Amino acid sequence: MQPGEPLGERYRLVEALxxxxxxxxxxxxxxxxxxxxxxxxxxxxEPELEKRFERELxxxxxxxxxxxxxxxxxxxxxxxxxxIVWAAEQGSALADLALDADRAASRVLRRLLPVAELLRALSxxxxxxxxxxxLKPEHVxxxxxxxxxxxxxxxxxxxxxxxxxxxxxxxxxxAFVAPxxxxxxxxxxxxxxxxxxxxxxxxxxxxxxxxAAPTAESLLVLKLMRQAPLxxxxxxxxxxAAVEEWVAMMLARxxxxxxxxxxxxxxxxxxxxxxx
Length: 276
Ligand SMILES: Nc1ncnc2c1ncn2[C@@H]1O[C@H](COP(=O)(O)OP(=O)(O)O)[C@@H](O)[C@H]1O
Ligand SMILES: [Mg+2]
Known about the structure:
Phosphorylase Kinase, domain 1; Transferase(Phosphotransferase), domain 1; three-stranded antiparallel sheet; 12 helices; 41% helix; binds adenosine-5'-diphosphate; binds magnesium ion
């Protein structure tokens, strides 16, 4: 696939956004100037990746604004190219926003605003019986008005997001994955996503990940063996005790130690921010 190449009758490829085992993600444009993001499946892929593509398309059909990108088009089946087209969302990935932000105490808690939004998005997803399983800052888009859009859905199983090579991308996923998801990827429930939200909040507040290790393998072992550190033990800027407790609860090693649902987690977060 090349910039300028047409796809189907409507789209023209602009720029590659990502390349993976199953295919490529491109930004694209049509003759009206509207912008899109297109995920294309390779013509020959393992049946497992094909199944995952079908599932992502099926999930995309159930979702849309607010909180999820608008599905425009989807082609699957044995004939012709297979792709999913979404409207391109304006905004920056949480990954990019957080790195730029300064760490003044007054600003630190404001970083949790997208986390509260993220929990509302998850509530909606979980209500449909869908567990994201690959939540991380690059999959959370923050729009200019502060609302969030959740990307890359219903797609990743642990065997992919944790492929044990030392690429930065893979390590990034390993950093946010729940301990039980490492052991039994098929059996996780919505509380695995809550763990990832805890890891995202930890990172937003401290600039650090809850666990650090030189390889993905050792990171996963560490995560299975140890509870995450307390925020105030690693934070340059102290956070209120109630917020520290909330993050620790989200990062509980056992799912039973976490809030039961995204909406319960959101209520507890509001309480932690309001109290103190
Ligand atoms: N609807 C969208 N609007 C804007 N950017 C998007 C959209 N969908 C995906 N992206 C960007 O493309 C990247 C790759 O998409 P993703 O669904 O994560 O593909 P992959 O399966 O290759 O990880 C995302 O991390 C995000 O930066
Ligand atoms: Mg992705």
